[in-house]
Amino acid sequence: MSQALPRRVLVTEVGPRDGLQNERLPVPTEAKVAFVRALLAAGLRDIEVSSFVRPDLVPQLADAAEVFRALGPAPAGRTYGALVPNERGLEGALAAGVGKISVFTAASETFSQRNVNASIAESLTRFAPVARGARGAGKTLRGYVSTAVACPFEGPIAPAAVVDVVKRLLDLGCDEISVGDTIGAGTPGEVARLIEALLPSLRAERLVLHFHDTRGMAVANVLASLRLGVFRFDASAGGLGGCPFAHGAAGNLATEDLVFLLDGLNIEHGIDLEPLKAASAGLIAHVGHPLASRVHGAPALAHRAR
Amino acid sequence: MSQALPRRVLVTEVGPRDGLQNERLPVPTEAKVAFVRALLAAGLRDIEVSSFVRPDLVPQLADAAEVFRALGPAPAGRTYGALVPNERGLEGALAAGVGKISVFTAASETFSQRNVNASIAESLTRFAPVARGARGAGKTLRGYVSTAVACPFEGPIAPAAVVDVVKRLLDLGCDEISVGDTIGAGTPGEVARLIEALLPSLRAERLVLHFHDTRGMAVANVLASLRLGVFRFDASAGGLGGCPFAHGAAGNLATEDLVFLLDGLNIEHGIDLEPLKAASAGLIAHVGHPLASRVHGAPALAHRAR
After folding, report:
1. What is the pTM of this model?
2. ipTM entry
């Protein structure tokens, strides 16, 4: 099932949302705004900026409206996204002028219950009006499927269960689906089986893989995905959301590490590594720990500078 | 050039030598001995235990003779190796009953000059009597080629330059060649080109890939190697020799991360992950920093326990 690697990869930067949501320390609003601007300067075109969720549940992102207000409209050809759990969240996102609306569910019933206190079916029912509203307002709609490889409570998740949830998200009108190995349990073995199960139902244009580097497999999982024709990935600048010396550090795939891989494979992505590293570096003082990205922590290679 | 993955992988554990040589703090002799015994218990069959080098140059391994004495002969079917820079080192290794003798050179002239104060040709001339002596004593002979992807001084290294050094090491009688991306500069792109250049001169049975995880590419590079038929890898328990929060941390590929990958690909290796993690954990107090291995730092997955 291996094929020529894609010539171009589309990266969705999720550091400001998924990364910062999983940091212990709150980051000041102005630092978030500067971070997003630095990401734009590094060439990122699709940035999930924040979440319109209950501030008591996710205090790290309680300033979503202020962040969007300070940023202003996304520059031409760029997209700002926001995660939205319900219709109230959608109202906030629409008022903020967000370009892409994301809803989220899981492939594991137990994880869904513990994470959003609803079954998968209930969570999808809850998203139906959000999806209608987002699409009615002309927004791009993204669906997240978490625990797509394994669940911390249930163990391995069958690819067929993921395909089932993906189909229901497509039925809700999702333009793209981000399929996530939330606990970083997968290797290229599990990931290849998952992708092979998904592609008959979901064209590669609409499939986004979302890896966590908990066990150091994220870059290898990207490589396995590329070989199956996948060309869209989520990544978090610096690997934000994880800490390199915390037990169970569960950071997203670091955008720097993804970019370094793609450069070595001569795959286009439009991102400049050194400005990206600078964007991430601006967060170190705020999150209070070194960044998890290996490429960020390593010396620049003169011959790989762009 | 992609093919079915190998069914079995042979791991050479280099943590006690390459790992500890690159740790700042000296590790007590008894801790090294306990480490090697724990590695044996975890299933490692081929362990590079130490170096017979000048103690003023590599004080971390000055106790090589004591370590081998305390260990006694390798159990049946297991091999203890040692790095040897010259005939004097060989004498020490032979007296210690070492089963495998390793010599080392580089693919970069500048690196060779700075590392061993000799050109590549001079270093090979110096190894000729060591190789003769080792083979005359019935020992397995390993050659290391460092900076096989890039050199910190020269930048990228042409695969042809690596092939040239490999051929000269084979002429010296090396049974196996460990080809190393010493500064962790390579991605699966560079690594695949290197392996494709090497395989016509060196059967996969004799080729060992030696990756450093400096930029988080080591596991992906293993995957790319496996797809080209490579089935021998060096790895360092815990990722010893690197530190997850030091700038420029240059640890070896962690044995735990390699094992986790191979388990996910259903490739046999004979190593048990939890006892391996226990072996590495015994070193944490001595090296004074968390281990670089992501798998070591992550919670065990119940469904992946062996």
Report:
1. 0.96
2. 0.94
